[in-house]
Amino acid sequence: MRLGMVIDLKRCIGCQACTVACKQKNATPPGTTWSRVIVTEVGSFPNAKLSFLPVLCNHCDDPPCEEVCPTGATAKQPDGTVSVDPDKCIGCRYCMVACPYNARFFNYGEPATQYDGKAATPFEVASVAEHRVGKVGKCNFCADRVSDGKAPKCVETCPSVARFFGDLDDPNSVVAKLAATPGAFRIEEGLGTKPSVWYLPG
Amino acid sequence: MSNTAAVQQVPSSRFTNVVLAALSVGLLGAWAWQLAKGMEVTGLGQQVTWGLYIAGFFTAAGAGAALLVLAAVRTKEENAQVSTIHLALACFVCAGILITLDVGSPAVLWRLAVAGRWRSLMTWDFWLLLATSAASIAALLARSGRRFVLWLAATLAVALVVVEAWMLSSMAARPAWGGIETVVSFLVGAACAGLAIAAAREQGEAARERLEIALWANAALVVLSIASKALASDERTTVEVATVLSGGPAPAFWAQLLLGLALPIVLVRQGRSGIAVATLVLAGVLLEKWWTLASGLAHPWLALPEGHYAPSLVEVIAVVGAAALAVLVARALPRVVPAKAG
Fold first, then answer.
1. What is d(CA B178, CA B172) in angstroms, rounded to the nearest whole number?
2. Interface A:B, Cβ pairs < 8 A
3. So what's the pLDDT on residue B303?
4. Phi and psi (nearest 5°) for B64?
5. Per-residue pLDDT tens for A135-191?
6. Which of B90, B75, B213, B201 is nearest to B149 (CA)?
7. In Å, how far from its chain's centre is CA B30?
8. For an interface test with A, which of B44, B301, B306, B309 has the most A Cβ atoms less than 10 Å from its Cβ?
9. What residues of A are in contact with residue B43 (Cβ under 8 Å)?
């Protein structure tokens, strides 16, 4: 089994709903975006346009973050996802240096509230334990939701149905079929990381 | 030394020790503040995750390694040999403090000690630093077989520097650090740092000549490295070179060239090799590690909005304090294990 995602760039409208949904679901601290959309301007006036690239942890098949982790905190799971065990993480940030995709985030201090000048919300208070100081965190494909048979929050939220989630090893799954379509690509495949997040060209 | 000179030197030495102790207290204060507030007191962010602490660690470990090699080849100068081991140990103390600061606390290093995976180069780095330090102490205390133990320590120390360089150069995510060039750069940088400290202690012509050769080699390496990358045609390398020359880490790069390489070369050629020259050279090596780390981390494949790094005051106080503590250790060690004890 290898859980993976396919993102259809033709469908992505750059609304950042996935970014917000991820932050809402995981209560990530300010400045931490496990899922985000990179917006770039392509071309020049009068033929300029915005290009959108949703990114998250690629849950690589050959993850450089797992290779460098000195304590085994970062591990490849049987379902193909790459997880971080905060109890084992020593906060050396070697994995962040090794990750080519900037998908990892370090909790430098106590998580601050998203709302300047106001006290943390009950949800933020309840989520503090998930973002422990001195530990690295990242997208886990919403492991809790997936174990309940649901799709990750970003997939469920996407208003233009640009994201697909499933087992890449199952040839009958939607993601496997989409990943096999001509033109499907992964980010920086030349690095040899074998990401589990595929893209369909825009 | 005349009696008058001896009398004059005592207050000066005491004053120096007081200043060094005060700076060391600054280290403790910065560390306590960091323990209380977390790593957010540093200037590090989500994109540049290694900064001044790691740069200082690489510099101190490299200096210690070079000093150990120097001690190992001094088979006929026992006093100088022991004195050089003292200096090397002080450097390793500094390196140990800085790496502990970077990961937060000694408890974290304990976890690395008991749960480290050999697949990770960081585990090798950690154990090599410990093994090198232990072998250095053994060499210092050895009454027989010092030569063998010292060569073992020197070999471990060189391996330590190579592993540290390899930690960077083996990362596919950071092409700016790629290749054997980083390993050579770390070895030459280590030689500069160690030989500068040794030259400050000895004040001899031979020591100055060795230092000058290392400085010229480092200068050539830095200039050729940047020039070869500037001539590269791919866009990514061009951006990285532009970052080094005119981006956020540029002040560190130019300061290294002018103050950490050119000025010391001029001073050494004028016959000077005192503490001021050693400080300049060490600062130059530190700056090189800094701009290397910062420029390599500034342009990932998928950038975050914030990519600039500037060390915080806490980091600066801690690194200066760690260096001061190392000097205190270097001054205290000859009293604990005198040069003639071996």
1. 7
2. 112
3. 66
4. -60, -40
5. 999 999 999 999 999 999 999 999 999 999 999 999 999 999 999 999 999 999 889
6. B75
7. 20
8. B301
9. none
Per-residue pLDDT band at B341 (split at 50, 70, 90): very low
C-alpha dist (Å) from residue A81 to A61, A62, A149, A173, B209: 8, 11, 15, 17, 56
Mean pLDDT (10-residue bins), chain A, 202 residues: 97 96 91 92 91 96 96 96 95 95 91 80 81 93 96 97 97 97 94 96 88
> Shortest Cα distance from B54 to chain A (angstroms)?
10
CA atoms in the 13 A half-sphere facing the CB of B188: 20
Q: What is the pLDDT of residue A33?
A: 92
pLDDT at B299: 78
Q: What integer pLDDT is reported at residue B7 of this predicted model? A: 40
Spatial contact of A159 and A17, defined as CB atoms under 8 Å apart: yes
What whole-number distance in Å separates Cα of residue A163 and Cα of residue A179? Answer: 12
Q: Between chains, do A191 and B172 touch, taking CB under 8 Å as contact?
A: yes
Per mean pLDDT, which of A129-133, B16-20, B177-181 is the most reliable?
A: B16-20
Q: Please state, in angstroms and rounded to a whole number, the distance separating the CA atoms of residues B342 and B340.
A: 6
| Tokens 């001899």, located at residue | B204
Please report residues of B whose CB lies closer than 8 A to that of A103: 302
Residue B15, token pair as written in the block: 């004053």
Q: What local confidence, expressed as pLDDT, does residue B340 receive?
A: 63
- Smallest CA-to-CA distance from B307 within B51, B103, B104 is with B51
Task: Mention every residue, 6+ apart, whose C-beta is less than 8 A from residue B114.
Answer: none
Query: How much helix, strand and coil, in percent to the nearest 5, is found in chain A?
Result: 25, 20, 55
For residues B30 and A189, give the distance between their C-alpha atoms in angstroms, rounded to a whole number.
43
CB atoms within 10 A of CB B239: 14
pLDDT band at B307 (very low <50, low <70, confident <90, very high): low
Residue A166, beta-bridge partner list: A4
- Residue B60: strand, helix, or coil: helix
pTM (2 d.p.): 0.92
Residue closest to B202 by CA, chosen among B278, B141, B151, B263: B278
Identity of the amino acid at A154:
C
Q: Which of residues 33-52 of B touch A (CB under 8 A)?
A: 37-42, 44-47, 49-50
Q: What is the mean pLDDT of residues B74-102?
A: 92
* Backbone torsion region of residue A14, taken as left when φ is above 0, otherwise alpha when ψ lies between -120 and 50, otherwise beta: left
CB contact under 8 A, A105 and B46: yes
- Cβ contact (<8 Å) for B47 and A102? yes
Sequence length of chain B is 342
